[in-house]
DNA sequence: GATGAATGAGGGTTCATTCAT
DNA sequence: TATGAATGAACCCTCATTCAT
């Protein structure tokens, strides 16, 4: 009796993972326009199964978005142990940018508004980034008047917008990141690499 | 009394304006999820009337987005005559940010991709911003390795992302604009005003 | 006062003709799926003008269909004076077939059901074809057990159905007309021309 | 009692049948003007269910039309084994006429143009009728210059037209079939039964 | 009489969600 | 638990018809 129950459970767990992965993929490609049917298809399960795991589409989005916050928090947590506070912050921004670029879910935030789980995850992330920022500021690495959320917000904006470009070179993101870095430093500017973009 | 003589046409013209205003409002609030029915309702006309003025939803979006580009171009054009090149660029960014903040349609760009009219409007805007940037660069006001589209892109991203925040202080946008400005200057940083944001 | 009135009248009359011609064209091409807008456009007038001349779409159809009946009646009337009764009937069928093939409106009949004007026109046509058939039967040219409407009906059916074929040779209609003729003669059969059709 | 075991699938199957029957009915009455909503209503299901079974209206039409071709093919196939080739052909025409009369879908052919499944079904039907015709020709039962498609086309035309008549006697179809038969025979004609039709 | 703007019902189609199996 | 069939609301768009000018 317990064994089949366990096997069912693990099947369910596996389906949940498949669904989350599929949802991430679909939502990052088509936003809320991604259909539950598409998610189910990509996960290789039936539509009904999606609703067994997530009561509504919004809940699924919330879990996906929350997961991203958690994963970014983990990065921040690890870098908090670095010996170079300023380097750690820049490293965080670079890593976070790459992750966000791979799967841009920022614009789904609005949908998760008010979800307590997502809020919790986001608060955790903010705590992490604030700590990173504090350390860098203490070390004199960045201007003293910005906060973790400030930086995070700008980062998301940059990533998202780069994604909107039709002709984006591999350096597009890097260009904008450097502008951000320079804006964060107490002093001067660095050279930008790569070809210049021609269109908005 | 003489004016009402041609009121039929002017009624149609009025409806067109009402529709564009309604569309701007709806699209800026709900993006492409805004329904034609909502636009019609807000404009106070029947659904069919929308299609009399704009053959498809995409066309309506294109006209609205194109209009924004034109209006931004006008701002750029006026500032091109300023005696202070660097100040003109910063002024442009500030004004543009406010306009975009009021009605953020940037994220509808993807939908208008390939529309020749929108493309034309966008090119004009790019020309204007490039000119502003060139002048500021010649005056040594901003780093020499960025382009008009670079800056515009970042600006749009900031506005859009700030708009996603639920609890945004009036200074939110300004804070981030200043970081952007500082990232653009060849040298140091400026103080950030206002309360610090708490959430992403 | 009378002159401008007259000129208006003749303009109206001209528009009526233009509309009927346009309607014939459109309806024969697309049946009831032809839109009033298309008819108006082809006639070079505004949509509203169509409704000034014909109260409803159905009325327009009725007038067009009635006109066809009248025109076929005229052909029958002329051939009634022929010295060769059997030849006259066959000639009628051939001419009628060509006219119908050019503009097939038979399938719009259902729409005109109950319209007294169309009924009148149709009755006149039936009188004409009955007379043609009677004469041919008296002359021993065709079997004595068919009627004018029988023949007309079959003719219309053939034309319409041939019109549905995608790959119709110019001889398609002729092939089938000859089979019909042979079915009408008291005796034997005639050779069929042209390539054989491959599809239904 | 053992059968209901697989009732889920059979419910779906049942709905499919209901839908096809409803579609046949509606399409044969109103052609492509029949609405999906009407079909759904007649089948007793929701509109969405129609699209679960048939992706588009065109697909539904294609399936219905294809089904008719298949069913006619079956009749032809069975009669191919008859000992009396000429009788078999006439029997086929009679049976086919009755089936077509019950549900006239000929005029929907245009819509299915290019659909590979329908094409396949139609080709099969043509093969069957050609075989029937060949045998009848070898037996000297019908003229040697007609083909299966020829006959099929005339048959469809006759049936369709009889359907257009407002006051059709039960003999209407028979009258026209006999004319067709006589047109197919190498020699003379047969008497027509029933009252003569009065209207086109 | 002519125009063309406005209306609104209706059509095909999609999709989140429910539920019987 | 998983499935996928069914639902029905919502969407974009078309078109006959009305009516102010």
Automatic annotation (TrEMBL), chains A, B, C, D:
Q: Which domain of life is it from?
A: Bacteria
GO MF assignments: DNA-binding transcription factor activity; transcription cis-regulatory region binding
**What InterPro entries would the database entry show?**
DNA-bd_HTH_TetR-type_CS (IPR023772), Homeodomain-like_sf (IPR009057), HTH-type_TetR-like_transc_reg (IPR050109), HTH_TetR (IPR001647), Tet_transcr_reg_TetR-rel_C_sf (IPR036271), TetR_SbtR-like_C (IPR049445)
DNA-binding region positions on the chain? 35-54
Q: Which PANTHER family match?
A: HTH-TYPE TRANSCRIPTIONAL REGULATOR BETI (PTHR30055:SF234), HTH-TYPE TRANSCRIPTIONAL REGULATOR RUTR (PTHR30055)
Q: What is the lineage of its organism?
A: Bacteria, Bacillati, Actinomycetota, Actinomycetes, Streptosporangiales
Presence of keyword Transcription: yes
Q: Which organism is it from?
A: Lipingzhangella halophila
Q: Where is the HTH tetR-type domain?
A: 13-72
Q: Which Pfam families match?
A: TetR_C_43 (PF21597), TetR_N (PF00440)
State what protein this is by name.
AcrR family transcriptional regulator
Q: Which UniProt keywords apply?
A: DNA-binding, Transcription, Transcription regulation
């Amino acid at each position: 009796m317990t064994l089949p129950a366990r096997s069912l459970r693990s099947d369910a767990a596996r389906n949940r993972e498949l669904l989350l992965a599929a949802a991430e993929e679909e939502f990052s490609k088509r936003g809320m326009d991604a259909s539950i049917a598409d998610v189910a298809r990509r996960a290789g399960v039936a539509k009904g199964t999606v609703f067994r795991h997530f009561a509504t589409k919004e809940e699924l989005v919330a879990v996906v978005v929350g997961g991203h916050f958690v994963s970014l928090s983990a990065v921040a947590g690890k870098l908090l142990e670095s010996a170079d506070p300023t380097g750690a912050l820049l490293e965080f921004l670079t890593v976070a940018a790459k992750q966000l670029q791979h799967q841009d879910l920022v614009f789904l935030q609005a949908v998760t508004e008010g979800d307590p789980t997502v809020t919790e995850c986001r608060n955790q992330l903010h705590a992490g980034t604030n700590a990173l920022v504090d350390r860098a500021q203490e070390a004199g690495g960045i201007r003293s008047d910005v906060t973790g959320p400030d930086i995070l917000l700008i980062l998301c904006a940059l990533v998202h917008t780069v994604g909107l470009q039709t002709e984006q070179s591999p350096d597009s993101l890097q260009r904008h990141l450097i502008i951000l870095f320079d804006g964060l430093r107490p002093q001067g500017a660095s050279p930008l690499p790569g070809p210049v973009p021609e269109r908005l």
